[in-house]
Specification:
alpha/beta; 6-stranded mixed sheet; 6-stranded parallel sheet; 6 helices
Length: about 240
Amino acid sequence: MNRILFEPAERRGGEVRLAGPRAHHVWAVLQAQPGDTVRAGEIGGGRYDGAEVVLSTPTECLLRLGEPAPPLLRAAWDLLLALPRPKCLRRLWPQIAAFGPERVYVTAAEKVEKDYWGCTWLRPDVFRPLLVDGLAQAGDTILPRVEVHRRLKPLVEDVLPRRYAGSRRLVAHPPRGGAGAAAPEGEADAGPGVVAIGPEGGWSDYELRMFEAAGFRRVSLGPRILRTDTAVVALLSLLSLPRPR
């Protein structure tokens, strides 16, 4: 937990009172005493790098916030993700939030199992705490906007071209025979854009043609078939790198 996050409703003027795991973290892990400072942040708001500890016990913590710094800048790339296996989705939520996209689209694909749509990890009340965990790890305060689209075609053909007109659009897919699309190097400062990552078996030929007709350029991480959570982290990491000059 690299930043202690709190909800706007928990703040009273210039102070915030914390309980539970966050208070215990300040007391046991940070070992902060009254007069020490910690890094805090309001979810959806500013960052407080010098929040003063007024009270610290195993069960309660009182912070005096001071002046806020602005939130971190959003990532240059949003994510479109074909719905993965439920356990994989649960692992992915914190990692996605840590990269700082403004929007995350969870959508269908031909190789997505229909029973995945009943998983609890698609419920906002379930995945939001996981997103908050990712923000705390990254020191961020702004939650990504999550949209669930049960139909891929209207999303790709209607929604995304309007939102990303003039922006980079990438679709990740393993190349056949070890050749084909290039890795997404040197793309980081070309955004804001959107990158689409499909099921572990890749997008279907029909889906790839649909993406390409909508202005998406095909990219690849190489000929190996990666797990979805590996591919998401690897691709977002590459896209976060600054372009060599």
